[in-house]
Amino acid sequence: MTTGTRIALLLVGLVALATVGAGPAVAVSEEPGGTTAPVDCSFPVEQTDATGETVTVDAEPETVVALGPSAAQTMWEIGAEETVIGVPEHASYLDGAESRTNVSGAGQTFVDVETVVDLDPDLVLAPNIIPSETVETLRNNGLTVYRFEQATSLAAVEEKTRLTGALVGACEGADDRAAEMNRSLATVGEAVDGADRPGVLYVMGGGYTAGEGTFIDSVIEAAGGTNVAARAGIDGYAEISEETVVEQDPEWIFTNSDIGTLPASAGYEKTTAVEEGQVFVADADTLSQPAPRTVQVVERVAATLHPDRYDGAAAYDTLDLRTPTTTATTPGMGVPVALLAVALLALSKRE
């Protein structure tokens, strides 16, 4: 596959990430304390997925393949990891993942369809980054595949956690984990309530950021910050101009560990965040995957932005980028293409 083809495929992935809406609802009932729980955890389970298909799971799955790291992490977090027989390369950080079959294709980005078919799982969990064509191919090979909608908020992560539990017969574990997420978020919310909300910019690389209606926006807001990209009218995952960065003048800037650096430009150097050394890097395995562990990121961002109000987690170490370094390029690729590839690769890990 040529470099141009890879970039084209990644661009398709970006468009899909930017345009898919909220997830399907699971039947829920209110419980004391504002938490919700599925009404029914019996089989068969029928749910309409992101492809518009009504997916029926006839019996509790004994074997499950997770095509994305967020789906794999969720299975581990709800206590259903023993049924997982296949995971993507980007889920290798999970305890015991090395004993599962790697279902990633070339470049650790795409699914190896043949491997998944050979595993013959009872259920395949496909996050939003998995192309509909891949889902259709797996279904044509006789597999039951549920493709999730894009998680655009922390509330959607909770919903997806409970939905996963219903699909795999782990409702109790899913409900417990979702309730734990809610308690943690409520604690953070109470701590930062009424505090000044500093402007925060999330840098994805390649000039991209996360605007309004994104999962990252939800993380920033929950941690007591104001997403300056959303404030500037940016929707979804999109480019942000240097002029907008200067105009918004974020007090804090952060990125994820897959990116690890900021654009080397005069505009970024002029921001309050860089001038005051208020820049930090979040772990991509928790930040970039809309799954239960993302609450840990909210806690750490809150401790970083509001150390006087929230000390329930370790704050992120800040970086002094007054003399920023130039982002490295991939041999044979121009600087814009290399930066775009880095940004889109980071996006590909989100789900």
Automatic annotation (TrEMBL):
SUPFAM superfamilies: Helical backbone' metal receptor. It holds the Pfam family Peripla_BP_2. GO terms for biological process: cellular response to iron ion. Residues 63-309 form the Fe/B12 periplasmic-binding domain. InterPro entries: ABC_Transporter_SBP, ABC_transptr_periplasmic_BD, Peripla_PGF_1, TonB_box_CS. This is Cobalamin ABC transporter substrate-binding protein.
